[in-house]
Amino acid sequence: MLTTQPNRRAAGLAALSLLGFMTLAVAAPVRASSAGPDKGYLPVEATAPSPADAHLAELFTPPFGYREIKVTTGSNARKLVTITSDRILNGRAVRKFNENLRSKGISVFGAAYYGDFSWGRTVVDAAITATRKVAGEADTIEVSEGIARDPQSGEPLMPLTVSVDEISIPLRDDFGTSWRKVHLIPDREPAVTDPKTGRYPGSRVRAVRENDPDRKDVFYSVKGNLADVERYFEERLKDLHRTVIVTGNETDEPAPTEIFGIKTPAQMIVLSGYTFHAATRKLSSTEVTLKRASDANLAPYVEVEVTEN
User: Cα(109)–Cα(104) distance, rounded to whole angstroms?
Assistant: First the structure.
């Protein structure tokens, strides 16, 4: 009786052929069906990142250990930066991530969402900005605005989404390449009479807002120390009013606000003075709002808003 041995060479070649087929199938780009739902992504071939995408990945490199940073091209002139951490992310890690961004001149303005990322998740108000100094121009910066928006409603997308070990940040595709110039301390001032508090030494008028004939807002900017500016206005308010109330402190954590027309976290101190005039039965008041951004390029400057009636 003859016995036959299996053809090991043929079986090996068959296995290698099957393995090669499986490898090619995994590596091949996946293309979206025209009949399927829009996922917010454009089908693209796997290629080396463009210089702009590589720069984005560098800008958003986190202070903690990570496995990967991806920049994905989306539909409607949008991009998605996805950072995969080497461990589960908690609130402290996200806070440190934002602090690290601000040290590089990048601010994420708005709440973070904890869950899966979605191109359809919008918020009422949010912003992502980058700032940089302008060489050769004192007290001048450039700002790049990058918040991605929903194409139908025009509302901003959730600026930062945290899902287990991933951070997702949707951006306009021109973020970091399109810039506008901002003069923090202007050369020319609008015509205005200084309020009774006067102006802090060295400050310049940036804008004036007339609310009504008896009330106006004057915005100043100065390069200086927040505590020194606070002391100046507290003393001036005590000279003008019987009651002075101060809220906020220079050591408080930055909170989302707008300073120099830029949405970014900042420390804020509000000084309010009140005087009741018995003869006229009227209350006069002065409110001074001081802001100092934690953005590295804005931190040396204080914005002063004085409102009086």
Answer: 15
pLDDT at 46 over 70: no
Task: Name the phi and psi angles at 15, rounded to 5.
Answer: -65, -45
Q: What is the DSSP string of 98-137?
A: HHHHHHTTEEEES-EEES---TT-B-SS-EEEEEEEPTT-
**How many helices, marked H, and strands, marked E, lie in the chain?**
4, 16
Whether the per-residue pLDDT at 292 is higher than 70: the answer is yes
Q: Using one digit for the tens of pLDDT, what is the confidence trace for 163-178? A: 999 999 999 989 988 9
Alpha helices, DSSP H, located in the chain: 8-27, 51-59, 91-103, 226-240
pLDDT digits (tens, 9 = 90+) for 184-228: 999 899 888 889 999 999 999 999 987 776 778 899 999 999 999
Instruction: Give the strand pairing for 160-163 and 112-114.
Output: parallel
> Is the C-alpha dihedral spanning 176, 131, 191, 219 positive or negative?
positive
Which residues have CB under 8 Å from 165's CB, separation 6+?
Answer: 84, 85, 86, 87, 88, 89
* d(C-alpha 83, C-alpha 60), whole Å: 8
Is residue 265 within 8 A of residue 287, CB to CB? The reply is no
pTM for the whole thing?
0.76
Two structure tokens written together for 106: 């990048």
275, 237 in Cβ contact below 8 A?
A: no
